[in-house]
Amino acid sequence: MMKSRTDEEEFWHSTKCKPFTFDDDDDGFSKLKESKQAVNNIRPLVDEEEDEDDVEKVSWSGEPVGSISWSVRETAASSQRTDRESTFPKTSTDPPTRSLSGYSLSSLFKGKTKGGNFQAFTDSLSDSSVRLYAPELRKPKSDYKDAVSDLSPEETVQRMLQGKVVSLEKFRSLQDKMCLLDVSVSAHDGNVITAVLIYLKRTLSKDVLFRELESRQTALRHFIHYLTETRDQRLLLELLRALGRTEDMALLQYKEHLRIADENKRRDFLKSCLSLPFSAEDSGHVQDHYTLLERQIIIEATDRQAERGGKVEIFQKFPRRASILNMPLVTTLYYCCFYHYTESEGTYSSPLNIRQTFKISKKQYFVTALAARAKLKAWSDVDALFTSRNWLGFTRKKSPLSFQRVVDILQKNSAPTQVLQEYVALVDDSDLRISLAQKLKCHDIVINMYRDLKDRQLLLGYLKKMERGSVEERKINELLNNSQIRWKN
Amino acid sequence: MAHSARKDSPELPDFSMLKRLAKDQLIYLLEQLPGKKDLFIEADLMSPLDRIANVSTLRQHEVDKLYKVEYKPVISNSDQLCFLIRPRIQTVKWICDVVNADKAAGKARSYKIIFTSQKFYACDAVLEEQGIFGDVTTDEWPFYLLPLDEDIISLELPEFFRDNFLAGDQRWVRTASNALHLLHSLYGPFSKVYGIGRCSKMVYESWRQIKEGEQKTDKVDIGKVFLIDRDVDYVTPLCSQVVYEGLVDDIFRIKCGCVELGPDVTSSDKSIKVMLNSQDKVFNEIRNEHFSNVFGFLSQKARNLQTAYDKRRGMDIQQMKTFVSEELKGLKQEHRLLSLHIGASESIMKKKTKQDFQELLKTEHSLLEGFEIRECISFIEEHINRQISMIESLRLLCLLSITENGLLPKDYRSLKAQYLKSYGINHLLTFANLRQLGLLVEQQPGETLTAMESKVGKLVNDKTAGKLTDAFSSLAKKSNFRALSRKLNLVPKSDEEYDLRVPRDMAYIFSGAYVPLSCKLIEQVLERDGWTGLEEVTRLLNAHEFAGPGSNGADLAAKNDAQRTILVMFLGGCTYSEISALRFLGRERGFKFIVVTTAITNSSRLIEALLDNHV
Asked: Annotated region Disordered: where (chain A) (predicted)?
């Protein structure tokens, strides 16, 4: 194996192997392209010899017709038809059989199938692989009769662990109840713990139950989870209050806003959350949430009208794709930088106002505004973002973001080369600058850097990549013929 | 490309029996409801079910129509409805609604709920409350284990992670121990069980209870077991995966051993579903490879294939006949596989190049090394500011927090505020979850105690130091990653060259930058046959380690193959990278690892399980 690996190394790239990088287009990627091409070349040959029937046989052919997921999809598609047929309930002539006792047939032998006996499996496997596994249908009556008789907490829990139906009614004194709870906790089965808790919830007053749970963390967590799952919000809040977990209480109430679809109701609800006992930090965030939604509602109403009116150019040119309601703050800022960039600080939708109200950091504001203006190809706005004037009146480009990132953002918004060039030139690190310049075809930068390095060889190499008759080609040739330059090679 | 394995590695046991067993049990249950019936299947049970049965199996047992549980009113004319569900309160409530709606409409039908893998008492309580207890029959389908491949078995319980670690609900402990028991009965008896973590310990204890009074089987397939909680090691699943199988999972999401590849990969107009397992010859050779080696391999394969096809030229009729009957089919299949994996690699490459993967990896490696943390923070900050993937930002924040034992209060506040601004203020709830789990926390003022603690530890005897630590650790679960990393040598020195084509240790799965903690623990414990000598490590991990006998009947001294077949059970999920690392370890040491996991996880699934920004 090792040998063939070296062979292939030689075959695929005779150059010395370089460390692999994920953004190295030249190396792995092109290798991949070659192999893809090789495989694609074979394709016609294969296709002509393809016979339909063995398609399903190959292991990776995914979901064959007849798989369950496939069939469910089929049912879904056809169910629309069946819908209409079934408006009238069909009265069944023979009533379905149903076990009327609380115990279904299966629950009678449950104790046997659970956990305990895998002997049956091994049996069924050893004698014949097709035989169905069937647990004993009936156990002696004595196994069930004691469901209501006197069982110790341990025995009770033991039975519950086996999935048997047990009555808990005999645990009446608080001491018995707590003993049962503690035994269930020590058995490490959440199912049983919850079962006991359901019983306790029914037979103990809240105050007593809460008090007892406070010192029983495992049981408490089960109870909280149970209340969460059954959506017993009121009791859960009471519990948290009793435990003095006010912050959790506040968060839980705040979470309710997610269920409110109507934006005005949601805003009002958030307003009512402001007085909840959040931590100092979170309380500021919730305040922001309320303010933001309030503002989004106003902006949304105004802009929707403006868009419908058809008088505002920007909405005609770039119709809004979605409503701004319930979007994150940064998205809202982006939106405002896109549609309301020039507004004075006094309006709700002015980016500057938003920046101020929500104390958005300089960097965050910068990144967002840059992306929005670049998207609109408003290059002069982009330019203005960087320009700062010093006291002598000279302008200088400054950025809270590395220029490499800036280039990245601009490039992703398909900025033209002239624009990119300006910012690539500002990248500090010269290696990075040249690789960016090459990647983004900012030829001038590359050429000038090679010239400054007095590196004739690199320049010659770069010349080959230029188009015939292009400005760049001419420029390089001029440089190469320039006798003033003292090339180092 | 498969590394030469030691010749004496044991064979893997045959796990197809588990599928057959589950299928037979299901059939048995379906027959409990004779006659035609419509079957409603919980959405996340469909793929697992697909792996063990198909529609005709169900049809044979009089299942008429199949539906997915969608919490909508039921449209069905059948007078028998059967529901195959997980024991979830929400689903049971929906069934109650269905039954009550029928009652109101005067429609009489019979209903059966099959819970898998078990019914919870809380479900019964719902049936009772909704007044339909007795109107429905219930059953349990003990479908615990789904073999995803010859060495991977899944419980297909992704909710195990959140329920157990975030909510602190132990409902699945029993399920895990039943699963272990099933494996023990069929492939044991186990001679030794090691483990670490609170949940692991509970599973072990509850399994010991179940197995009392069992019989001994003569043939032993699995000798040793290692149980590990996911919260012992959060660092590993939070790292970007760079081994092929893990990368495919990170990008395309492998579901139940199957991946759906879109038109961009198949270079056609439709997407296809592909099973990824050892049956796929091409995949089998690259799945454990670092992604950088994959191209070379695929290129080589493509060339070989070309040569094989080229043989046709100049063949006479007879030769051609032999070629077609003997070789062609294999070649065609290989061709199909090859173009598929080339397509996938290409698509991975494109996506990764676009998102500055290289820089992301650099940041991760710096965090693991504890190097240039300020730069890492500003990288993460920029990530957040630019609203790049919400999950990715959170993942990096968590990685920062665990490796640094929490964030400085100033950083925590600022990063959290920026995060909320970028991705929505309702993520307040997500942050509360992450704090509760200890994944993303502020450093406590008392944190400086760690330094003091170690000084004190040197002065007083170990026992007192241990107590001291307990007192500290009870305040908040600290990750102690740096100390662990030093102690176990998890981060190799960065100045050394690491040849990814010839991996020298498990670190290769993270480009040589980090040996996964989880796998390192397994290696160490197996080497020492216990935790002796690892006291400092277990102390840093908040203890809960154990090592005990498996079955009394099992011969401990037996030096047979079974003792080198080791079952590793991950409670709360494991990643494909970890599986690759264990396969590597197995090849080096002559072990065979069988991974049993509650679900396959990766960084996105882990984080998504903790999000709370939706209803």
From this structure: 69-99
